[in-house]
Amino acid sequence: MLSRIIFCFAAILAILAVILLALLSPVAHKNPAKNPSRPWLDLSLYIQQPHISSYNIQPVAQSDAGAFIFHRALTEGPENTSRVVGKAQGFIIPMEHFANSAFNIIFLTFEAPEFSGSLSVEAKHVEHKDKEELTVVGGTGSFAFARGFAVFAQTDSQSSEADATYQAKLQLRFPNRSQTIPG
């Protein structure tokens, strides 16, 4: 009889503990609209010809040559005097049988006090139009495990592809992380 009383008392205490935790827990009272579980981070940057002397500039290969290989500066604004925050490098094979190749990647490397690290942007479906929507497939440093979208748009339609400035709009999402990027 004593064992039944102890068992019932323990069961009642366990049920009471679960009910009290559910009612008094601070996690249950958080407003999901104020604190989304996976926030987006938006960045807008520009990809420009680096500021180096003219004899070191390597021209961009044309599409009939087989591949686009580029090394560009990543800046905060479209002007030549904008602060450089990193670099953009890429290797794209626009030929039909390599159009969906895993080699078609654009690397954005950040070297700024606010954020450091890199992003990998997959360029599988490049159509050579004024605006390209690509996929962010990962990152390192401040951008570790980033996923999202990258929209590349040419800012000046009068310039050639080799001298063009591109705006890169990035929408990034991080798994289980706050929106602020540690430096």
Structure characterization notes:
- The chain is mainly beta and 183 residues long.
- It has one helix spanning 2-24; strands at residues 40-48, 68-75, 84-92, 105-111, 116-122, 131-141, 147-154, 166-173.
- It has an 8-stranded antiparallel barrel with strand order 1-2-3-4-5-6-7-8.
- Strand 5 (116-122) and strand 6 form a beta hairpin.
- The radius of gyration is 25 Å and the shape is elongated.
Task: Write the SSE topology.
Layout: H1 2-24, E1 40-48, E2 68-75, E3 84-92, E4 105-111, E5 116-122, E6 131-141, E7 147-154, E8 166-173
Strand order of the largest sheet: 1-2-3-4-5-6-7-8
E-strand count: 8
Count of separate DSSP helical elements: 1
Distance between the termini: 64 Å
In which range does the helix fraction lie?
A: 10-25%
Instruction: Bin the strand percentage.
Output: 35-45%
Category by helix and strand content: mainly beta
Q: What about the largest sheet?
A: 8 strands, antiparallel, barrel
Using only CA atoms, what is the Rg?
25 Å
Average pLDDT figure: 77
Broad shape: elongated
Strand and helix order: HEEEEEEEE
Low-confidence stretches: 53-57, 59-63
Descriptive key words:
single chain; 183 residues; mainly beta; eight-stranded antiparallel β-barrel; 1 helix; 13% helix; elongated
